[in-house]
Amino acid sequence: MRLADSLWTEWRIALRFLLDNRMQSLLIVFGIAVGSAVIVFITALITGLQANVIERTLGTQAHIRILPPDEVNRVLPAEPGSHDLRLENPRAQRLRSILNWQEVRDALDQDRDVLAVSPVISGPAIARRGVARASVALIGIDPQRYQRIIPLANDLIAGELRVGAGDAVIGAELAEDLGLSLGDKLRLDAGEGREAVVDIAGIFRLGVRELDERYVYLDLKQAQTLLDLPGGVTVIDTRIGELFEAEHIAARLARLTGLRAESWMATNGQLLNALASQSMTTEMIRVFVGISVAFGIASVLAVSVVQRTREIGILRAMGSPRGQILRIFLLQGGLLGLVGSACGGGVGWALVQVFNLFGPRLFVIPVDPTLVPLAMLVATVTGVLAAAAPARRAARYDPAVAIRYV
Amino acid sequence: MSDVRPAPPTDDEVLRLAEVRKSFNLGTALETEVLHGIDLRLQRGELTALIGPSGSGKSTLLNIIGLLDTPTAGELYLLGQPTRAADDATRTHMRNQAIGFVFQFHHLISAFSVLDNVLMPLMIRQGRPGAEQVELAHSLLAEVGLARFAAQKPTQLSGGQQQRVAIARALVTRPPLLLADEPTGNLDSRTAQSVFELFHRINDQFGCAVLVVTHDPRLAADCSRTVELVDGRILSDSQIPG
Question: Does domain A101-262 match CATH 2.120.10.80?
Answer without folding.
Answer: no
